[in-house]
Amino acid sequence: MASFDELRGRAAIVTGAAQGIGRTTAVTLAAHGMDVVLADLNDERGRRVEAEIARAGGRAVYVRADVGTMAGCERMVRAALDHFGGVYALVNNARWHPHELLADVTEADWDRSQAVLIKSHFMGCKLAIPHMIAGGGGAIVGISSAHALQASPTEGPYEAAKAAVTGLMRNVAVAYGPQGIRANSILPGGIMTDVKHEAAARAPTPELDARQARQNPIRRRGEAQDIANAVLYLVSDLASFVTGASLVVDGGMSIELPGSIASRS
Questions:
Q1: Is residue 202 part of a domain?
Q2: Which residue has the higher pLDDT, 86 or 199?
């Protein structure tokens, strides 16, 4: 893959960076020369990603940060300033949510899920944007979801927050575009992450995997690298005229009629 040389030496913060889409995004940005703050609560995996990036010749620092709190977001932004001298890119990716019918979700779980899934985006933007402006501009990517467009019975808190991410990114794009800040959202769908691959290795389900791979026009499961590539594009100068966009990265799953999918599944 060609190097995005303009990113070299620019600092990025990635939340939920210890695993999944966050981990792959952090490794990808570092591979293209970005200095990366890895914000997460999983110390073991976070340190592992930090070491992985260092072995490849990149620069990263793991920060234990609960991004559902203002203190946690302050900690990750301060780490970017202290270690790398500024903030150019912010990738809000962290997630936590219950998997229950809405009437069964407790108020505490609702509040916690919204703090991690959407309030963290607000707080990260609030704290990072002034430093981006001071540095001449920057790029923000909010990881939304195909669940922002389509619903399933037990994902109410998740779907509400992911729909809000797209609206928030449009607001940031309009409000701070004159100061050189671009903001976009990515809507992943059907993505295999490192954690899912680990689970599949422990308990293989080849027939289910094959059926799920047939549920989009591209006929394969998405990989975390597909999302990381989209983030790389959006934070790079190749996307210098792209802001307020909601980029769906789902292999076309959301555009095909359900009956068409069912006919081959």
A1: no
A2: 86
Burial class (CB in 10 A: 0-12, 13-18, 19+), 67: buried
Per residue in 80-110, pLDDT (tens digit) is: 999 999 999 999 999 999 999 999 999 999 9
Nearest Cα residue to 141 out of 92, 191, 77, 94:
92
Q: Is 160 within the bounds of a domain?
A: yes
| Residue 178 is assigned to a structural domain of this protein | yes
* Residue 173, in any domain of the structure: yes
- Domain total for the chain? 1
Q: Token digits for 106?
A: 């407790």
Q: Which structural domain range is residue 67 located in? A: 5-192+223-251
Q: How many Cβ atoms from other residues are within 10 Å of residue 261's Cβ?
A: 14
Q: How many CB atoms lie within 10 A of CB 55?
A: 8
Residue type, 251: G
CATH number at residue 20: 3.40.50.720
- Residue 4 has what pLDDT? 76
Name the phi and psi angles at 64, rounded to 5: -75, 110
> Could you tell me which residues come within 8 angstroms of residue 209 by beta carbon, excluding any fewer than 6 positions away?
200, 221
Distance, in Å, from the CA atom of 226 to the CA atom of 132, rounded to the nearest integer, reads: 26
State the catalytic residues: 158
Flag whether pLDDT at 258 surpasses 90.
no
Q: Which amino acid belongs to residue 39?
A: A
Spatial distance between the Cα atoms of 25 and 15, rounded to a whole number of angstroms:
10
Best CA proximity match to 185, nearest among 114, 131, 239 = 239
Task: Count CB neighbours of 29 within 10 A.
Answer: 29
